[in-house]
Amino acid sequence: MSIIRRMEEADLPANPVRLSQAVALAAGAVLVLPASVSAAEACVLGDWRLTEYRSAAKGRNVEINAEGGEGARLSLTGKTASYGFDKAKKVVTKGNDNGDRYVLKSVYKKRILFKSTLKGSKKGTLVLKRKTATGDATVKHTFNTVPMSRRKLAKHYRDGDVDPFIPVRHAFTCSGRTLKLAATLSDPVAPAAVTAVYRRL
Question: In the chain, which stretches have pLDDT less than 50?
Fold first, then answer.
């Protein structure tokens, strides 16, 4: 059964399956990361602004591509990661599920904070501790033209879920002015590659 038929039968629930990477790949996502490296140096620490976000998932009769979110802020210390969305553009996801095409628009607002583990210097890993999520950040989706209920992100993470706009495990590379985060999410239907590029503020 296609995703649109499932949505119609379910009367558009707040957390539909496979609407986007944010909804589709959240449950049980596994990220592939390099081995642990040395303690983080100053390169990766500080305040960053998102300039590019892309997520691409492809499986049997399923293809999902997302981009947007430019302007989101990320602040990293050695022990915390804070995301701010009040200046972020919407994230637009375009999907094709068994021939049924759809568009999901996601608007993120306010802030979310995690305790985190940061390892590496110019290359390494960033791990967010999902159970420590706090803050008033929300996301509101519009499926095609139908608005859906607003989700509280901190609770979403504390409940054990993940939003692929903010993966909990990243590989990073840092060149002083540019920070690139990358994650590979494994899903039995549509594996996804997620990349986010930030510029230092």
Answer: 2-39
Task: Give the separation between CA 195 and CA 112, rounded to whole angstroms.
Answer: 19
> Residue 41's pLDDT is what?
59
pLDDT of residue 6: 44
Structure-token pair, residue 85: 């969305």
Neighbours of 41 (CB within 10 A): 14
Alpha carbon distance 147, 133 (integer Å):
26
Q: Which amino acid is at 124?
A: G
CA atoms within 13 A on the CB side of 171: 15
Tokens found for residue 19: 């609407």
**5: helix, coil or strand?**
helix
Dihedral angle computed from the Cα positions of residues 184, 181, 139 and 23, in that order, rounded to the nearest 10 degrees? 0
Residue with token string 């990766």: 44
Encode pLDDT of 16-36 as tens digits: 334 444 344 333 343 343 333
140 neighbors 2 (Cβ within 8 angstroms): no
Ranges of H-type helices in the chain: 3-10, 21-24, 153-158
